[in-house]
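seq as requested:
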Amino acid sequence: MEQNQDYFVIKSRENGVQVIGLTRGRDTKFHHTEKLDKGEIMIAQFTEHTSAIKVRGNAVVYTRYGVVDTQE
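struct tokens:
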């Protein structure tokens, strides 16, 4: 399976922002969780195992497609 080489950045605006990785395949399941504190960033990409990312909390997500603010 070809991997997407694009990276995206998640910047936390508060303590306790959760970034949850969801699996690829027949059954989508949680497979990885990170917790970010205010001002921390996470640089990530989709892989053969990760098909989606869920962000819970006040954060900004930067991708090549644009910027998404979780509070808007």
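The first strand starts at residue 8 and ends at 12.
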